[in-house]
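Appendix B, record 7
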Amino acid sequence: MKTVATILFFILLQASMAVHAQLNFENLIRSGPADAEKLVEAYANPLLYGFGLGMNSGWTNTAQALKPLHFDLRVIGTGSVVPSSKQTFDVSNIGLSPTLRPSDPSKVLSPTFTGDTRNNGPLMDLFDANNNKLISFELPRAVIKSIVPTPQLQLNMGLFANTEVMVRAAPKIRLGERFGSVSLLGFGIKHNFARDFFPKDSEKIPFDFSVLAGFNTVKYGRDLNLLPLDGMIPENDAQIADFSTQRVYAKFDNYLIQATLSKELSVFTPFVSLGYSISKAQIGLKGNYPIANSIKDEKIAYITYSDPFALKRTYLRTLRGDVGFQIKLPVLRLYGSYGFSGGYGMLSGGVGIGF
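Structure tokens (predicted):
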């Protein structure tokens, strides 16, 4: 159950792709904390990895630094390509409890967040300790095919000789009751060390070499509405029956250290880079949640879990390589790159204006 919030976060953050799917991921919580944690972890894995790689992309497309007080404003989109091996998981291999099992033992493969967007996963049956069937639910289909998209809006400015700073920012945006709210803030700094070894008035040097450090954080929140199924009753009088304060919250921190080598060829500048990415998460659920537990008086009885989890975890720690280019025209800038890390590919492209 500890990463069910993660799934909700990304579904809502990328709402434009998920609206048509009519998916109800809140039902995953109905399987209880232990099994819901395993199901959502398996479902979320490629999404978490792809999102972390995407948020650490697009910081720079050249080792050159802007001149002092010069700036450019850029919009870049990154798509992290999820390998086919990460687009399904086997429900029989993730350690589910004996009380949760597929209705058809021959149907055990389920889509992750990326993969089959047309067909739901297997139907799962939840039983109590006496092997009484409580509820059934289908695991969700994928929301997107194979590419996890991440946008970046970034302002770069020359700070002093051979040094450039970057800012990524989006104020808290309320996406409506269905999608919650999201905000973004990030900072980066880059220094071109190659220029330190040449006279300041040198227009051309053999190559540029820079080191960049970047950080960005994404915050998300949304109210939930997970109620007991029709006909459910509380296990006993001690069970809380107020479910009005349910809320998911998440905070994702992404860090990047990256060395870049580039060569200016008139308006065209190719580059190669090697970096190290880290992405961390703070995720939690607030409020009370009804979970089917037993049969009582011929009815399904639930127990209530309050504030089921609050955790901190690191879900990405990996090397990455990138190759790409910048085209620098009067005022207009064009960017493109391809990155690779852990079997994933990252395609980035964007446009900017600079003065």
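Remarks on this record: The two ends are 49 Å apart (CA to CA). Confidence is low (pLDDT under 50) at residues 1-12, 15-22.
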